[in-house]
Sequence to fold (285 residues):
Amino acid sequence: MNLYNTEEAAKILGVNVSTIKRWSSAGKLKCIRTAGGHRKFEMTHLTEFIQNGQKPNTRINSIPMDRAEDSRISEWILKSDFKNLVNYIQKQAIHCNRNKILDVFKGMVLAKIPLYDIYDHLITPTLHQIGSTWEKGQISVIEEHFASQTLKDTITRLQGMINFPEKKLGVVMAMNLENELHDIVLKMVDHILEFRGYKVLYSGQLTPLINLEHIFDDYAPKRLYISSTYVENLTNAQSEFDSICQTAERFNLKIFVGGSGFDYIDYNKEPVINRLHSFKDIYSI
Fold:
């Protein structure tokens, strides 16, 4: 049985220690008393507390993990043990266990781990580890696709479970370059921007440049986020990016770029405000 002290319980529920003690003394939050009179909490005590509506405005109401795994995974989440979480998520992704991955995401949000930390320190390293495992021949290309698509599907499900600000900061657009085959990174960008309060025009993978000027004119985004994770033909990619910048400049759009593709693409153009190196950057800038 994995037990948490008052300070750890306060971290999970997003309140101070005195509030935990008050709820416990009032019988609202169950606990176990040690021989020395100290309060200890099981994860089931915390989830039951939330499920019963004792804490208002809670975003995630449960983390329905398998009982055999509950204590171990809960401890990793509480301690932000991303190393073990990455290994666990990779294994579940390869076997298409979407619900198990979603349980971890729910638990991390419950523990008030910022969304950008989940993407920077859990999902991104997991994607890299999956790619490395495939390159070493330890999994097949089909299993690599299983894992990537499972993560993308789970991120999409998570997006539907989090409360976003009703009042929007404005309209932004998130796009890949035309020959980008994967959009999982862009989906996480979309999620962070929506969490910040933007209405996001999300174009996904293989975005053609046809009618881009029409889109800027009709939808009037104020910012354009461009992701590039792989460049097959640098000449074509540079030409495409230059064309986007020229069009964006006519509409006074601010451009933000990110991804390893911009190690090669020259992004020192007038409309480009910044290169983003992390999901925390997206949240902060």
Notes: Confidence is low (pLDDT under 50) at residues 57-66. The first helix runs from residue 6 to 13.
